[in-house]
Write a structure and sequence with these properties.
The protein is α+β, with helices and mostly antiparallel strands. Helix content is 33%, strand content 27%. The strands form four sheets. The protein has a seven-stranded antiparallel sheet. Strands 3, 4, 7, 8, 9 and 10 form a six-stranded mixed sheet that branches. The chain has a three-stranded mixed sheet with strand order 1-2-5. It comes from Microbispora oryzae. This is DUF917 domain-containing protein.
Amino acid sequence: MQARVSLEDVSALARGCAVLGTGGGGDVRPAAVAARGAIREYGEVPLVRLDELPGDALVLPLSGIGAPTVSNEMIQSADEPLHIRDEIERIFGRPPAAVMSSEIGGGNGVSPVAWAARLGLPLLDADAMGRAFPEVQMVSMYVAGIPANLVVMADVLGNVVTIRPVDGLWSERIARAVCVASGSSALMADYVLTAAECAGAVIEGTVGRAIAIGRATEGAQDPLAALEAELGAVRLVTGKLTDLERRTTGGFARGTVTIEGTGGDRGRKLTLEIQNENLVAIEDGVVRAMVPDLITVVDSQTATAVQTESLRYGQRVTVLAWPCDPLWRTPKGLETAGPRAFGYDLDYVPVEAIETAGSAA
């Protein structure tokens, strides 16, 4: 029997995508509402593996682009994926055969269920990040060396923009400018590839992985411990959010978060640097974890992930960190989405190596 994303899967998918979002990717709550509504209207969404698609089938990667703080307030149009689908069909002379999430993290990992249902297409069990990243070129296809020769964007007003960038960095610059002109929120398709071209260039199994992460805490006596075990994560600190500086600029949510330890972590202080996502965790001047490894803030009682735009003074939270997909630890992966790609003068050290060194010390 073919796998499908059902109404019962949406809650687990949303919880898992929120965790994988590392603070970004958009709020999962409105995305989950839209996904349930689309499933009720159009039916369950087939979930397909890459090897189940014909080699020449077009895969349509979709994601929202912009500042999460804006996307929470600007309601997307249900027609945006239709506008993009029509433009892709005009360009390629045939319609796409499957939808793929460009990033499995946050609302961008959940919304493709609604988009696929609306388009009457299956959802590919894969994405291009294995988490969430803030910039357009920070995808596995760029790391794999595939030319970024097409970006199609649509906004809530029905504007459709087709971009032919010379490379991935220019795709970010131009797409970000278009996004800002659209109010810092738009829907985007980039790296429209055949299934054969996707092989080895996307991260497979991530939709199923997100659902498994979401289900790990269901009915658990200790949800935080269950989530930590499912992820193989390091617990960086448990405490209270005591300081927050956040601003929206250039289509990003940027800022700094301070968490002071409580209980067994009393006396400790962890600082998080954010650009839509949590990028670097620092304690007493020592880096505890850094991008591209995943750093997520969760509610200490429920283990529910807290997005950067939902952080508030006084929240009782725990910060978890765990290894990224191996693709991001390659030289090209680190050049694309390592700490220096975000302006941090840091040599990347895997989170598990930092933890081992700290334990030994």
